[in-house]
Structure formats: structure tokens, C-alpha cells
Amino acid sequence: MANESVHPPHGTGDGRQDASSGRSPWWYYPGLGASLAVAFVCIDIGGSLVPAGPIAGAVLGPTLLTWAASRSRGSAATKALSATGSRNLFGLYLVLLGLVTAVGLGLGLGTDLTGAASVAGLVALALTVVLGRQADRNVARPGHS
Questions:
Q1: pTM (2 decimals)?
Q2: Fewest CB within 10 A of the end CB: N or C in the chain?
Q3: Dist. CA 27–CA 106, nearest whole Å
């Protein structure tokens, strides 16, 4: 028993889960979706926010959130990507996100329809939260990791 850890496992009543479960923190997918929504809203607002918003919302935000989630769990926050049931789910997510982006930006920039990119950002937020949490549930299921 000399090799046993003296540290208590996560998930012992303090609201945290075991890092080996692969589940993301509760704030990860809402934060990721909000970050993407910011990118869309900045495009809709226009002006000097157009170059900075998408860079902050689509590149810096997700990178920082993934780093923070990995630090808080002690394991990669992207473990859900490797789960068998989640690969198809993330493929669906990318296709849907691409369609939402194309329609939102096409209507917003191509036809000057006010608010189209912002609505696309809200849809991206919802897609990210719903499909991300489903991916976490797939990781938690026995035989799916």
C-alpha cells in the first residue's frame, strides 16, 4: 500500500469530479459558446471590432478556456474528442457551425441584414453548449472512452 496516493480523489463532495472522468468543467462549454458568440456580434457591430472580435472570440477565447479547463481538471479538456460516440458528434458540430457561420455571415455581410451575424452567434452558443455537454455524457458512459 506504499504506492497509494495520499491525496483524496476529486469528486469527494467539493463539486469537482475526477480528472480521469474526462468531463469538462461546468463553465467550459458555455464559455466556449459565448466566446464564439462574441466573434459573431463583433462582426455585426462592425468598425474596429471586426478584426479584433473574431480573433479574440474564435482564437484567443477558446485557447484560454481550454487551457484553464485543463489546469482545473489536471487532464486534457479535449478528452471528449477521443470518445467513440463523440467523434461523430463533433463532426456534426463542425458541419452545423459551418452552416450557421455561412448563413449568418452571408445574410449579415452580403445583404446587410442587421443582426444576422448576432443571431448566428447565439445559435453557435446553443450548439456549443448542447453538443459539448452531450460529448461529456458520452465520455462518462462505460465503454465509450
A1: 0.79
A2: N
A3: 30
